[in-house]
Write a structure and sequence with these properties.
Blueprint: E1 5-11, E2 18-24, H1 27-31, H2 39-52, E3 57-62, E4 65-66, E5 76-78, E6 82-84, E7 101-107, E8 111-112, H3 117-125, E9 132-136, E10 140-144, E11 146-150, E12 161-164, E13 185-187, E14 190-191, H4 205-224
Antiparallel strand pairs: 1-2, 3-4, 3-7, 5-6, 7-11, 8-10, 9-10, 11-12, 13-14
The protein binds zinc ion.
Length: 235
């Protein structure tokens, strides 16, 4: 398969300029963290993400938590092994955290919040860490939401697990970060995206993000804006 290039922005040492690190995704190393997923499936997952979510990085996580560099807290990426994107330190497999799992991390495409006055006001007052509030001609006011999409050890028998970061639940109007049927949440920021028996093993992470997770975020923003039936089925 073609090589997949990943990028990560960081501040240049001597200035405030942003420079982009880039590396070729080390799929051989990633496969060692992929549980039961086979090489062909991992290649397909990575190729689709590179095409549709090119800024997302493949990293290592535990649930919603991403494992960080022990020296500088930078993100771990698959770059000639598993190492810190900022300082290059190798991930120490002997560390006490146990074996992390493969996870994608990145921002969803812009969600227009022009019609969500309460959310817009809450975000202007305080935008959670790693979330982005902006405005652009043509789109108007928009919000970028970071998510962690983690592969369970028995993927693809079980679905990709998509998590909000903790800060999302601190937006005014959001429900608590706990299990809820009303808002389709499992707790720990995990979205409930599939009814029992609905998951199809051939569904990719890219498809879950585009077809389910994006809609979940839109509904939860509407819910927090006051639309209590945001998650009601339209039929
Ligand atoms: Zn580091």
């Amino acid at each position: 398969m073609n090589e997949i290039t990943q990028r990560f922005p960081r501040k240049a040492r001597a200035s405030d300029r942003i420079e982009h690190l880039s590396w070729t995704l080390d799929l051989d190393c990633a496969l060692g963290f992929a549980g039961r997923m086979d090489r062909a499936r991992l290649e397909r997952e990575a190729a689709e993400m590179a095409e549709h979510f090119p800024r997302w990085i493949l990293t290592a996580g535990k649930g919603r938590e991403r494992v960080r560099c022990r020296r500088c807290a930078g993100p771990l990426v698959f770059w000639r092994g598993l190492r810190c994107a900022l300082c290059g330190r190798d991930f120490d497999r002997g560390s006490k955290i146990g074996r992390p799992r493969l996870a994608w991390f990145g921002l969803l495409p812009p969600i227009g919040i022009g019609g969500l006055a309460r959310i817009d006001e809450a975000l202007r007052a305080s935008t959670p860490e790693q979330h982005v509030l902006g405005e652009r001609p043509g789109i108007g006011r928009y919000f970028l939401v970071p998510l962690v999409a983690a592969y369970p050890s028995d993927f693809p028998r079980s679905a990709v697990r998509v998590h909000y970061l903790p800060g999302f639940f601190r937006i005014r109007g959001m429900p608590p970060d706990s299990p809820s049927h009303a808002t389709h949440l499992y707790g720990q920021g995990q979205m409930c995206l599939f009814a029992g028996g609905e998951w199809q093993p051939e569904t990719t992470c890219r498809q879950v993000l585009q077809q389910r997770a994006y809609a979940h975020v839109v509904k939860l923003l509407n819910y927090a804006n006051g639309k209590r039936r945001a998650f009601a089925k339209v039929s």
